[in-house]
Structure formats: structure tokens, C-alpha cells
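Q: How would the C-alpha cells look for this protein?
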Amino acid sequence: MSWHRWEQDDLILHLRIQPKASRDRFVGPYGEDEYKVTITAPPVDGKANAGLIKFIAKSFRLPRSRVLLISGDASRSKCLRLKSPRHLPIPMGS
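A: Here is the predicted structure in C-alpha cell form.
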């Protein structure tokens, strides 16, 4: 399994999140099936999830409504669906 896959026009991302970081950024592959992302938001009251969605939407140049949290609401491991992204800010190689 890879940290990303395409389902028709949608991109599915498997991410490992580090909340309360010094800045929002893509770090790199984490293990064999996740990509590490740091988020400045704290992991309380859904702030980290909201911060992640905002960062991903901005990075992929999508409206927030086209970034969906599929799983991992209360976990550091998250699965997101990006609806028809056209800009890819990180390499999508395996």
C-alpha cells in the first residue's frame, strides 16, 4: 500500500499528523503507507483536523469543501479524499 492513490479524479491521501508544530508543512514519507504532515493547531476540539483541512486545501489549491476527512477523526493517522485536485504540491511517486 502507498500513502496515496487515485480513485478516478479523486486523490486519497494517508497522512500521519503532528499537531502543535512550529509550522504547517509536508515532511515526507512516514513508514511505508503514510506521509507526515506537521500542523500548528493543537489536537483539541477538532482544531488540528480543521487546521489540516485548511492547509491541504490551500496547498492543493482547492476549496475546503473539496477536502474530506474519511477516517482518523481522533487519531494522528488520517485518510483524506481530495475532489479532483489539479495542483500537486508534493511528488506523487510511490
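Residues 16 and 69 are 13 Å apart (CA to CA).

The longest strand covers residues 10-18.

Upvote if useful.
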